[in-house]
Specification:
The chain has a single domain (about 5-155), classed as Phosphoribosylformylglycinamidine synthase subunit PurS (Mth169, Chain: A), CATH 3.30.1280. About 30% of the residues lie in helices and about 35% in strands. The protein has helices at about 20-30, 55-65, 100-110, 130-145; strands at about 5-10, 35-50, 70-75, 85-90, 115-130, 150-155. Strands 3-1-2-5-4-6 form a six-stranded antiparallel beta sheet. The chain is globular, with a radius of gyration of 16 Å.
């Protein structure tokens, strides 16, 4: 039976999140006010028979992150950040994932795992005084292409 973990890679808090700021500007251009902060993370869903947390930490540390500007978390299900909307975006089944394919190849070539599946996505953290309807508009108009992406919204007060 295959198991999985998510590796989430994000900018160290003290570093400027360029992508987050660009998305925040796009949200303001939509006419949606009240967004205070946007942060963006890369997600890697690692799946296979011999997957465990320690192996995923090794993959993140040795292959995926820039130790100066990035950090990571490994989890199966993550508790939401307080006062943030969280939007996870993944490719739909059957859509090519070249970054996932490259990550898989690097993991196999490194000798860490022989048989592994990797799917990639993005996670957006949006903080501010905004309603769910506005978050849905942000997803539909900025973050997601419905032809190729699925997305999930979480909110924790």
């Amino acid at each position: 039976m295959n198991d999985f973990y998510i590796i989430e890679i994000f900018k160290v808090k003290k570093n400027f999140d360029v992508f987050g700021e660009e998305i925040k500007k796009s949200i303001e251009e939509l006419g949606i006010k009240g967004v205070k902060e946007v942060r963006v993370s890369n997600l890697y869903k690692i799946e296979g028979e011999k997957i465990n947390r320690k192996i995923c930490e090794k993959i993140a540390e040795e292959l995926f992150i820039d130790n100066v500007s990035e950090d990571f978390d490994v989890y199966k299900r993550k508790r939401g950040k307080r006062n943030f909307f969280e939007i996870e975006v993944y490719f739909k089944e059957g859509v090519a994932d070249p970054v996932g394919d490259t990550a898989k190849r690097v993991i196999v070539e490194s000798g860490i795992l022989k048989d592994v599946s990797v799917k990639t996505g993005k996670k957006y953290y949006i903080k501010g005084k905004i309603r769910l309807k506005e978050i849905e508009e942000i997803c539909e108009k900025i973050l997601v292409n419905n032809l190729i992406h699925n997305y999930f919204i979480k909110w924790k007060k």
